[in-house]
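Worked example

This section walks through a single chain of length 284. The input is the sequence exactly as stored; nothing has been trimmed or padded.
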Amino acid sequence: MAPKKAATKKVTQPKKGGSPWERVQLARHPMRPMMLDYVASCFDEFVELHGDRHIGDDAAMPVGLATIGGKRCVVVGHEKGRETKEKLRRNFGSANPEGYRKALRLMRMAEKFSLPVVAIIDTPGAYPGIGAEERNIAEAIAYNLKEMMLLRTPIVAVVIGEGGSGGALGIGVADRVMMMENAYYSVISPEGCAAILWKDSKHAEEAAEAMKLDAENLKKLQVVDEIVPEPNQGAHADPGLASEYLKAAISKGLQELAQVPIDELISLRYEKFRAIGRFNEDSG
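Given that input, the structure is written out below as tokens.
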């Protein structure tokens, strides 16, 4: 599944960079490369595996074995789908509980065989439907958070587009958290935030600014560790170059993490996430 270039379809192209809201628009661009596009261009020998060994499979969360830069790894991630039928099959990248349980099954396999994990995040959020609730979507995500925190193998996570709420965090506990330059990562969408605070989603642009959901702000807040650059006008304008940047960042991250003893790695991972949101109150 090769990345598609923007020239194949006439679309309105917002300018690269700019405000947080403009970056949200770029993250949602219809021609932006998706998870399986990057799997095809950045990884070799990808073999997809299916099923959570509990209820079923979830096409919104492809997982499998692969190599990158000659190094074997496990890949998990969200896939939105490009065309209408594919979007419906992939549930627009909103995974059900089976997706998170399947991802965890592969991560445990990675731990067993001493393989690093690469998590590719691109979701507006986990699926909030009745069936997902009946099958314990919240429990599945929470269990992933606990298990990933203690997983005895290196983990690299990268937000390539949308990073929505617990749906993103469910595969986002990692030793190295990266964001592509025009991705966003947030507890809720700007429209959802605007609907709560202003009672009107038309204030989404203001919400995006207030939420500090773009890569630059999240890097300053130490929520993410690294920003992966994109071509001018965004990743969709030159998917090949975007893939080169992403492959280099993931490969470098895996090489660096491989040098850290596993007990130290887990300790650093724990402290990293404990420190997020920490602040000092001046009593004076």
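What to look for: Confidence is low (pLDDT under 50) at residues 1-15.
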